[in-house]
Amino acid sequence: IWRNNPQEIIAKYLSWANNEVKPKAVIVYETMWGSTEKMARRIVDGITSSGIEVKLFDINQSDRTEVIKEMLDAKAFIFGSSTHDNGMLPSMAGFLKFVHGLAPKNRVASAFGSFGWAGGGVKELEGAISALDIALLQPGVAFKYVPNDSELKVCFEFGKNIADKIKLNNQ
Q1: What is the per-residue burial (b if ≥16 Cβ within 10 Å, else e) of 58-89?
Q2: Short-list 45, 47, 49, 96, CA closest to 76
Q3: What is the dihedral of CA 80, 95, 139, 73, to 10 degrees?
Q4: pLDDT in tens, the chain (171 residues)
Q5: Is the distance from CB of 129 to CB of 109 less than 8 angstroms?
Q6: β-strand 135-136 against 108-115: which pairing, if any?
Q7: What distance in Å separates the CA atoms of residue 91 and residue 104, rounded to the nearest whole number?
Q8: What distance in Å separates the CA atoms of residue 134 and residue 109, rounded to the nearest whole number?
Q9: Is 20 helix (H, G, I), strand (E, B) or coil?
Q10: Is residue 156 within 8 Å of 39, Cβ to Cβ?
Q11: 85 — alpha (psi -120 to 50), left (phi > 0) or beta?
Q12: Which of 29, 39, 69, 109 is the most buried (most CB within 10 A)?
């Protein structure tokens, strides 16, 4: 109950209703064996090295409403998933369906993930981003098995590039 300062919640609601964003990224991922998590953490490092705020969520360990709360004012969404049966993992698919119902506007997004013998998770994530009617910020990045040091460096640069594009989009 907002008895002390109802104008505060009214201002927040107006901001959300107008899809106002700030230079911030939210990374939501699902990992099968930890490889996608390693990628996510390096992407976070790349984004924060450029001074952009970032929030990181493992969708299986996070309350969806907390994730959505952080997404309300974020300019960029980055979704990650390991590949299973040539697609994204099921919790990520369900979460993206939930996000689709919110119809976010004025956002950008990208995708990343790992795979074993066959890829497909990142491509499916990019399709889900397209279905959200959100601009794809840059092509996704995917690596086979556990990412090595040079692949983790690519993840860092991937994050840094996202941060640079967030800055350009907010000028």
Answers
A1: bbeeeeeeebbebbebbbbbbbbbbbbeebbb
A2: 47
A3: -100
A4: 667 787 887 887 787 777 778 999 999 999 999 999 999 999 999 999 999 999 999 999 999 999 999 999 999 999 999 998 888 999 999 999 999 988 888 899 999 999 988 888 999 999 999 998 898 989 999 999 999 999 999 999 999 999 999 987 765
A5: yes
A6: parallel
A7: 20
A8: 7
A9: coil
A10: no
A11: left
A12: 39
Residue tagged 């927040």 (tokens): 12
If DSSP codes are grouped into helix, strand and coil, which group holds residue 26?
strand
d(CA 141, CA 154): 8
